[in-house]
């Protein structure tokens, strides 16, 4: 977490610093005049804050590119947020793969590693494999601020409190297994895949979404009002526990009728899009758009990256702690 040098305790100073940092974080780069306008902070204060943030490695002044025409008079100062100043990691520990993505603070993936698993793999081997994949993905990428983890089962407080698919997986405490170097956040794999769809996938710009993850079983992710809905126990959407003899189309339709989403996204393995589109049109009161995910095998790890970035952003823009 960044702090202003000098120990200035004033709330106004912190709020001004956050405004400047956020403006730069959300833009490619800004001139000093643009930064003053965007942050609504005075020019002298912006320059002081930019200097402090530069000393912390978060912001840098952008030089004119080689060969660019020199402006008449004093050239305008330009600044950018250094997204390469830190990294986050998103790790999927699933039934059939351990996959890790490393991203910079803009969310651009800069590292990747993957190893196959089987649903029968014991818990100790699964964890050891995940550690190796994490280490391989992180090679050459220092400064990891937060690790996000997505896994099968009901996850509460980072601990797998219920799992019916993986041997010995219930009770695994993921922050305890992977913590020490940075904060560790963990969540259900389908919920994180839903988060990824809202961030980089078919559900961008859509706030009410049912995400259907298919494979050897089916689970749902619910995004309501732009926020993940996990339920009281963290088990919302675990329709795979029912194992209906006639398949899941009707259970998905019941969910659509219950939450009235704008969009249904189909992810995972197998192509149920056409079948679900037909069944939902038959069973539901109103038409609902049905799209196929394009994120492929990266969906859970990408959602874990987004989970980690959410924590980084919270830390960066905390009034109490952050410049």
From TrEMBL:
What name does the UniProt record give this protein?
Answer: NBD/HSP70 family sugar kinase
What family does the database annotate? Belongs to the ROK (NagC/XylR) family.
Q: Which UniProt keywords apply?
A: Kinase, Transferase
Note one Pfam family from the annotation. HTH_IclR
Q: Name one GO molecular function term.
A: kinase activity
* Location of the HTH iclR-type domain: 16-62
InterPro entries named in the record: ATPase_NBD (IPR043129), ROK (IPR000600), Tscrpt_reg_IclR_N (IPR005471), WH-like_DNA-bd_sf (IPR036388), WH_DNA-bd_sf (IPR036390)
Provide the organism lineage as a comma list: Bacteria, Bacillati, Actinomycetota, Actinomycetes, Pseudonocardiales
Q: Answer whether the UniProt record assigns the keyword Iron to this protein.
A: no
Coiled-coil positions:
none
């Amino acid at each position: 977490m960044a702090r202003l040098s000098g120990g200035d305790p004033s709330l106004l100073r912190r709020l001004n610093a956050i405004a400047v940092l956020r403006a730069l974080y959300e833009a490619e780069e800004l001139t000093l005049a643009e930064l003053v306008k965007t942050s609504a902070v005075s020019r002298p204060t912006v320059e002081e804050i930019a200097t402090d943030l530069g000393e912390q490695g978060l912001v840098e002044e952008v030089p004119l590119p080689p060969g660019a025409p020199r402006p008449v008079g004093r050239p305008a100062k330009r600044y950018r947020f250094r997204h390469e100043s830190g990294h986050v990691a998103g790790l999927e520990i699933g039934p059939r793969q351990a996959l890790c993505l490393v991203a910079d603070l803009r969310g651009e993936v800069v590292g990747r590693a993957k190893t196959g698993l089987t649903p029968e793999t014991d818990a100790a081997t699964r964890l050891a494999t995940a550690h190796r994949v994490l280490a391989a993905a992180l090679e050459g990428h220092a400064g990891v601020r937060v690790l996000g983890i997505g896994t099968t089962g009901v996850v509460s407080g980072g601990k797998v409190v219920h799992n019916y698919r993986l041997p010995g997986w219930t009770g695994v405490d993921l922050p305890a297994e992977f913590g020490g170097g940075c904060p560790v956040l963990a969540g259900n794999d389908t919920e994180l895949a839903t988060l990824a769809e809202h961030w980089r996938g078919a559900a961008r710009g859509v706030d009410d979404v049912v995400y259907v993850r298919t494979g050897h079983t089916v689970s749902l992710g619910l995004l309501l009002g732009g926020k993940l809905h996990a339920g009281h126990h963290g088990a919302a959407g675990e329709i795979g526990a029912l194992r209906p003899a006639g398949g899941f189309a009707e259970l998905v339709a019941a969910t659509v009728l219950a939450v009235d989403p704008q969009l249904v996204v189909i992810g995972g393995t197998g192509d149920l899009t056409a079948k679900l589109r037909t069944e939902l049109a038959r069973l539901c009161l109103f038409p609902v758009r049905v799209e196929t995910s394009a994120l492929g095998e990266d969906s859970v790890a990408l959602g874990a990256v987004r989970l980690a970035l959410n924590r980084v952003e919270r830390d960066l823009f905390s009034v109490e702690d952050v410049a």
